[in-house]
Amino acid sequence: MTNAQLYEAIFHRKSVRKFDMAPLPSEILARLQEYAGSVKPLDANIPYAFIYLGSAEVKNLLPVKAPHYICLYSEKKANYLLNAGFVLQQIDLYLSANNLAGCWLGVARPAKEVPKLRNGLEYVIMLAFGKTGEPLHRTNTSEFMRKNLSEISSAAGAEEILEPVRLAPSATNSQPWYFSGDADHLIVSRRKLNLLRAAVYGKLNQIDIGIALLHLGLSLDQQGKAASYDFAQAEVAVPKGYEFMVKVKNSEKRG
Ligand SMILES: Cc1cc2nc3c(=O)[nH]c(=O)nc-3n(C[C@H](O)[C@H](O)[C@H](O)COP(=O)(O)O)c2cc1C
């Protein structure tokens, strides 16, 4: 799977919540697992692992049932939620590009019988996946229910770079991101939540930002640029009601 194929999937992907419960053929699962072993992290210093579960091993209060789940386990260090969004969104795009159905599940949990820790790594989030009889792809970006670019960005000259980021999925479609600065130095911030909402969405919201950063990385890559990330809280202005997450610097790709 190339970056160009993942990039292309951004414009057609959608969440699918109705699955054919027949397990996928073992070759398809093996190929997915091989791909999962090759995804790129946002921060290579955060240990993580994928665990594959079947439908009997997952508890979900909402009625989304799938034959397979890919769970991300991670060490809980700085930026682990951003990293979780970044790595698992590569799987979401891979599924779509390979005509498989997938859906992020923020409210599901591994069942009680599944160990909470794997080699010291804790469960963070999962994607349901499998085959479906439902339409898998959007044909036009007008089918995405998303904010307009002007609602999520004041960054000068970054319209083209940010269009695929605008289309990123987020928990409850809240799209908590905001982009300022300019095309070469994008400042990414996240909408602040009140205490009540933070208790429910505080973590998912950060995973959302990781997803947006993956789309941003693919978008820059498509334009021949490489991204570097600066998480240090700098003296940068972010809009009222938002908090600074990361500064993304772009440079021409070498070679
Ligand atoms: C971190 C995260 C958690 C999510 N959790 C759930 C969930 O628990 N149940 C569900 O049905 N959809 C869930 N979704 C899917 C979103 O509702 C969906 O991505 C969003 O509404 C945009 O729709 P789209 O993915 O079809 O473009 C989640 C998405 C993200 C990114």
Q: What is the topological layout?
A:
Elements: H1 3-10, H2 26-36, E1 48-54, E2 58-59, E3 68-74, H3 80-97, E4 101-105, E5 109-110, E6 117-118, E7 121-130, H4 149-152, H5 159-166, E8 177-182, E9 185-191, H6 195-222, E10 225-230, E11 242-252
Antiparallel strand pairs: 1-3, 2-5, 3-7, 4-7, 6-7, 8-9, 9-11, 10-11
Helix pairs in contact: 1-3, 1-6, 3-6, 5-6
The structure holds flavin mononucleotide.
Residues 14-15, 17, 62, 64, 103-107, 144, 169-173, 204, 207-208, 211 line the site of flavin mononucleotide.
Span between termini = 20 Å
Q: How many strand elements?
A: 11
CATH class descriptor name of the largest domain: Alpha Beta
Strand content: 25-35%
Shape: globular
Radius of gyration computed on alpha carbons: 18 Å
CATH superfamily of the largest domain: NADH Oxidase
Query: Could you say which small molecules are bound to this protein?
Result: flavin mononucleotide
Based on the model shown, name its key terms.
255 residues; 4-stranded antiparallel β-sheet; 6 helices; NADH Oxidase; alpha+beta; 30% helix
Explain what the structure shows:
The protein is of the alpha+beta class and 255 residues long. It folds into 2 domains: 3-130, NADH Oxidase; 145-252, NADH Oxidase, CATH 3.40.109.30. The chain has helices at 3-10, 26-36, 80-97, 149-152, 159-166, 195-222; strands spanning 48-54, 58-59, 68-74, 101-105, 109-110, 117-118, 121-130, 177-182, 185-191, 225-230, 242-252. The strands form 3 sheets. Strands 1, 3, 4, 6 and 7 form a 5-stranded antiparallel β-sheet that branches. A 4-stranded antiparallel β-sheet has the order 8-9-11-10, with helices on one face. Strands 2-5 form a two-stranded antiparallel sheet. A hairpin with a 2-residue loop joins strand 8 (177-182) and strand 9. Helix 5 (159-166) crosses helix 6. The radius of gyration is 18 Å and the shape is globular. The protein starts with a helix and ends with a strand. The structure holds flavin mononucleotide. Residues 14-15, 17, 62, 64, 103-107, 144, 169-173, 204, 207-208, 211 line the site of flavin mononucleotide.
